[in-house]
Write a structure and sequence with these properties.
CATH class: Mainly Alpha
Strand content: under 5%
Number of strands: 0
Largest sheet: none
Radius of gyration: 22 Å
CATH architecture: Up-down Bundle
Helix content: over 70%
CATH topology: Sodium/glucose cotransporter
Length: about 500
């Protein structure tokens, strides 16, 4: 049964748009003849396309759905984290990216093999795979929220539909098709959010002043929270927690996560990748600001009603509810189409990065087998199908969480990002560190995080910092206890 608030015109817009953008992705991907083509692209991709692709890949559905819901419940203090994201990208651009472009690296974890050895590369890849499948399972579930409203189906059905569409265009388009579609979708879904913002203001009594009054009186325009005093480390959105946590999380996600590094390597030059990475950090601040303000205006639009008052189960459903019920026919379809397509791009990128790391970091090095180009491409696509199935299972697992999906996804990522980033920094900053030191530090950093999270000792924005410090401390101590070994 279809949602009565979603008209025939809306369904036509969604279906035509998704079909067109999928065809565009396959066309831009071109014909792949090898796994190298499939995972890195056959030729250099312009830095500004990669820049837009990074923004779409890291936010998409989470930004579109969960950030307005977060602002509805809280205020604008999440912007402190977004500013930290930019700081982290600048550090990655000058600390980690040069190491990636010194040799012909195919994945982020190839650097770990070059610096420490094959075991470290394999371990890093395995940690990435587990983190990505969990975090992107949350992202897939987030994308299913508006589709559930539109089609009036249950969450598992919506999840399977989305995964099937994303798989189709990843399977045929490869990473080049994924990146080009991402770039287009970023413009579309940001345009969709801006359109919703305009309608919220235009249809409100008193315009901007009228609709924002309730949010202003509730203190929701607060941007900076100094957070000093009791409970300092339990508050996720204070100034220091936001800047430090956001910077380190961005360093980990954009410097050690194959989902993003795969895109940066597609630029084929250090200068271009730097422009793409830093540019994405600037765009992301304005994008978060846009979606947060949408959440505040929704607070005014619904008269400061609670989530339960609106008949909803979670704050993440508020913006999809407005899109479907509060916008004119055709406009709702356009915004939902942009949201779904952007989210599908993220999922496509996830499937591509998961399969590339599986083949290049694990299968080839561990099996020691050699394959011709056609065989490698065939296997790459089969691995992509396998990861798509696992993503569906992960999304279903996270359906019943009460936490906003953006915070849940970032918390999962922070769980392992500390150990991962700490190991990369160990390789860059400490020449004495050996493979045994790196592996022990990596494992130790993650075990420390298990304890910290179990005890709920700090808020999620501190997770990466704790993991990085623990990893660096263990690695440094072990390297000083051992006889120095020359860097490979």
């Amino acid at each position: 049964m279809l949602n009565s608030s979603f008209t025939a015109l809306d369904y036509i817009v969604v279906l035509v748009y998704l079909a067109a953008i999928t065809a565009f992705g396959i066309f831009r991907g071109g014909r792949q003849t090898s796994a190298q083509d499939y995972f890195l692209g056959r030729e250099e991709i312009p830095w500004w396309i990669v820049c837009f692709s990074i923004v779409a890949a890291e936010t998409s559905a989470l930004t579109f759905i969960s950030i307005p819901g977060l602002a509805y419940l809280t205020n604008l203090t999440f912007l402190q984290v977004a500013i930290g994201y930019l700081i982290g990208r600048i550090v990655v651009s000058y600390l980690l990216l040069p190491a990636y472009f010194r040799g012909e690296l195919s994945t982020a974890y190839a650097f770990l093999e070059h610096r420490f050895g094959r075991k470290t590369r394999s371990y890093g890849a395995i940690v990435f795979l587990f983190t990505r499948i969990a975090a992107d399972g949350v992202r897939l579930f987030a994308t299913a929220i508006p589709l559930k409203f539109v089609l009036d189906v249950n969450y598992p059905t919506a999840i399977i539909i989305l995964a099937a569409v994303a798989l189709a265009y990843t399977y045929f388009g490869g990473v080049r098709g994924v990146i080009w579609v991402d770039a287009v979708q970023m413009l579309v879904y940001v345009g969709g959010a801006a359109t919703a913002l305009v309608f919220l203001i235009a249809r409100a009594d008193g315009g901007w002043s009228g609709i924002s009054l309730a949010a202003f009186e509730a203190g929701k325009f607060q941007v900076i929270d100094w957070g000093l005093g009791a409970g300092f480390f339990q508050k996720p959105y204070t100034l220091i927690a936001g800047l430090v946590g956001g910077a380190l999380l961005s360093m980990a996600s954009h410097g050690t996560d194959q989902l993003i590094v795969q895109r940066l390597l597609a630029t084929r030059s250090l200068a271009a990748s730097r422009k793409a990475l830093i540019g994405s950090g600037i765009i992301i601040i304005f994008q978060f600001a846009l979606f947060l303000v949408v959440g505040l205006l929704l607070f005014g639009h619904y008269g400061a009603a609670t989530v339960a008052d609106l008949g909803l189960q979670r704050a993440d459903e508020i913006f999809p509810k407005y899109i479907i019920e509060g916008l004119p026919p055709g406009v709702s379809g356009f915004i939902i189409a942009g949201l779904l397509a952007a989210a599908l791009s993220t999922l496509a990128g996830s499937m591509s990065s998961l399969s590339s790391s599986t083949l290049l970091d694990l299968y080839r090095p561990l099996s020691g087998s050699t394959m011709d180009d056609a065989r490698a491409l065939w296997l790459s696509r089969r691995i992509t199908v396998g990861w798509a199935v696992l993503l569906v299972g992960s999304a279903v697992f996270f359906m019943n969480t009460s936490q906003t999906v953006v915070e849940l996804a970032l918390s999962i990522a922070s769980f392992t990002y500390g150990g991962l980033l700490g190991t990369f920094l160990l390789g860059v900053l400490l020449r004495r560190a050996r493979q045994e030191d790196a592996l022990a530090a990596f494992v130790g950093g993650i075990l420390v995080m298990v304890s910290v999270i179990s005890l709920k000792a700090v808020a999620w924005t501190w997770y990466t910092l704790v993991g990085v410090l623990a990893t660096l401390l263990i690695g440094t101590l072990l390297s000083r206890l051992s006889r120095p070994t020359p860097t490979p």
